[in-house]
Design a protein that fits this description.
Helix content is 26%, strand content 25%. It has 11 helices and 15 strands. The chain has helices at 56-63, 120-125, 127-130, 134-156, 197-206, 243-262, 274-281, 298-301, 307-310, 328-338, 369-377; strands at 18-31, 34-41, 44-51, 70-79, 92-103, 160-161, 179-181, 189-191, 210-218, 230-238, 294-296, 315-321, 349-353, 359-361, 404-410. Strands 1-2-3-5-4 form a 5-stranded mixed barrel. It has a 5-stranded antiparallel beta sheet with strand order 11-12-15-13-14. A 3-stranded mixed beta sheet has the order 6-9-10. The longest helix is centred in the middle third of the chain and has 23 residues, at 134-156.
Length: 414
């Protein structure tokens, strides 16, 4: 028997028991007559103790153990005199009576620790070693638990999990296909699916009215922060359902996952139409944590001979606290940011409301201070409220300050 318990299992209730553990040597410490070895597996770390006064030869062998040696050790569980509150097994240790080296190891290229000294390139080169680290293993285990909870919930809603083919005919979608040559049909190719869209529609026609699978998809497109050639998605299809039933089903799935994997009870989901989302946030996937909604300024901004605003279909602003202290350099950086092709604005207009009540703006030759103050008070009637405006496609938290500013952008005739 290689082990009777894992390295994260033993507690004070096991004191006096003879146990066998197997795992990897995390670290060793030599204190003369005592040698300590931390033994690790995916369940945790347990401290092993070798006493030279009891068995000098055994202790000498333990001193030669290197990092990542795989060993099996047998000994008696005892209470630690110097407990470690940061470790689940920190109240106990194993007084080892015998051990075997199952596999020796070379010195690893980086430390197998939560905060490793290996860079990304080195860790990817030795991926099998990086996978021993607790943060990486915890992510893998979490993903496994999440997939299990998805299956529990959806099968409880009468969904059927169906595996669809990977070798398919090429179908036009949003990216290029990965192709696989066919041995039996020379000069012909299979395509790897970008999504199971065709198959799940066939399943609906076949009468399987609720389908799901946790499926791998393949898209031959350029890498981005949220894109990669292969990815996994929870793919579902339903028939004979209304929009409300679809929303309730997958809101329920989201709540179930958060509750059963993270212990978080989510509140009722707010509902917002597409038109409302664009009107209030300028995006169909707004981040409501920022709380900086668009404020329409057409009635106040137009009709003052400022061509940019007068010719715009819509003039809106964003209010942000604490931005009146921004330097000209910071404002210029924001201006350059919104000119990027990803955002597409042609410029940035700002009005700054200082703590002393004065107003400064890049367009003050077109508007009087009193007119600009009416803009400031529109979304925030309290003059002490501090705000700023910039284009909607870049929402940013403002610093906490006692003064404020407003900035806004127009739809520059596009």
């Amino acid at each position: 028997m290689y082990r009777t318990h894992n390295c994260g299992e033993l507690r004070m209730a096991h004191v006096g028991h003879t146990v066998t553990l197997s795992g990897w040597v995390q670290a060793g410490r030599d204190f003369g007559s005592l040698t300590f070895v931390d033994l690790r597996d995916r369940y945790g770390i347990t401290q092993l103790v070798f006493n030279a006064l009891d068995d000098a030869e055994l202790c000498e062998r333990a001193r030669k153990l290197g990092r990542e040696f795989v060993i099996s050790a047998t000994g008696v569980v005892r209470e630690r005199s110097n407990k470690n509150p940061n470790r689940a097994t920190g109240d106990i240790e194993i007084l080892v009576g015998s051990f075997d080296i199952l596999n020796a190891s070379k010195v690893p290229p980086f430390t197998i620790d939560d905060d490793t000294d290996g860079g990304d390139d080195l860790r990817m080169k030795y991926r099998y070693l990086d996978l021993r680290r607790s943060p990486v293993q915890n992510n893998i285990i979490f993903r496994s638990k999440l997939a299990l909870e998805v299956r529990k919930y959806l099968t409880g809603q009468n969904f059927v999990e169906i595996e669809t083919p990977f070798l398919i005919k090429s179908t036009p979608e949003g990216a290029r296909d990965f192709v696989v040559p066919s041995r039996l049909n020379p000069n012909q190719f299979y395509a790897l699916p970008q999504s199971p869209q065709t198959f799940k529609q066939i399943l609906m026609v076949a009468g399987l009215d609720k389908y799901f699978q946790i499926v791998k998809c393949f898209r031959d497109e350029d890498l981005r922060a949220d894109r990669q050639p292969e990815f996994t998605q929870i793919d579902c299809e339903m028939a004979f359902v209304t929009q409300e039933e679809i929303l309730n089903t997958f809101e329920g799935l989201t709540k179930h996952i958060f509750n059963n994997t993270l212990g978080i009870q989510l509140p009722e989901f707010p509902r917002m139409s597409y038109d409302e989302a664009l009107r209030r946030y300028g995006s169909d996937k707004p981040d409501l944590r920022f709380g900086m909604e668009f404020v329409e300024l057409n009635d106040l901004a137009k009709g003052h001979n400022f061509v940019v605003f007068d010719s715009a279909a819509l003039v809106v602003g964003i209010c942000a606290t604490g931005a009146a202290s921004y330097s000209r350099k910071q404002i210029d950086e924001l201006t350059e940011y919104v000119k990027r092709p990803q955002i597409g604005a042609k410029g940035l207009v700002y009005v700054r409301y200082e703590a002393d009540g004065s107003v400064k703006s890049s367009i003050d030759k077109f508007y009087t201070p009193d007119q600009l103050k009416t803009w400031l008070q529109k979304p925030a009637p309290n003059p002490a409220t501090c705000c700023s405006f910039w284009p909607a496609k870049k929402k940013k938290r403002a610093s906490n300050s006692t003064n404020c500013a407003w900035r806004w952008a127009a739809n520059w005739g596009s």
